Amino acid sequence: xxxxxxxxxxxxxxxxxxxxxxxxxxxxxxxxxxxxxxxxxxxxxxxxxxxxxxxxxxxxxxxxxxxxxxxxxxxxxxxxxxxxxxxxxxxxxxxxxxxxxxxxxxxxxxxxxxxxxxxxxxxxxxxxxxxxxxxxxxxxxxxxxxxxxxxxxxxxxxxxxxxxxxxxxxxxxxxxxxxxxxxxxxxxxxxxxxxxxxxxxxxxxx
Length: 206
Known about the structure:
This protein has helices spanning 10-21, 43-46, 68-78, 89-117, 131-154, 165-179, 189-199, 202-205, and strands spanning 2-5, 29-32, 56-58, 64-66. The protein has eight helices and four strands. The chain has two domains: 2-78, 3-Layer(aba) Sandwich (Glutaredoxin); 89-205, Glutathione S-transferase Yfyf (Class Pi), Chain A, domain 2, CATH 1.20.1050.
């Protein structure tokens, strides 16, 4: 199996954390994609992912799986280890719900701000920007942080008592926010404590 990605980019980081949680990093071959050079927009890469984005998981039979939740779902079921996506119907549904909230309210909002309201990846790659929309995403990002601070005031992890895919998405989304220049408000003590605790996990701290 092969993963096409860019190390340390927000979405590839989600998949790498999941692999580390399953002790499966060594089972994957990583192939770097020259995003800054536009390789992700070539016909060859778009044949693997029409969305022209990393990461992409390519299986040994040639099947290509894009979108982080789908890739992590495959990883979780393919490799042994603690579940990241839930082991019963209720847990799977709650994790999926909270993962989606972490994705839209934090990760994607940080991306929207970065790509539209800052220089982003530069003029060669940022061919369309809408600064007003980007600033709106910053507002949404801060609202998302506030929401998850409330969640984590009552719960050990983003989707309950166990670490899951939702925590991975939330953690990398907060890192993306920092990279984009949006700091977590100091008042969000529960979110801050959770971030420090999760950041110390071997899959993240290394």
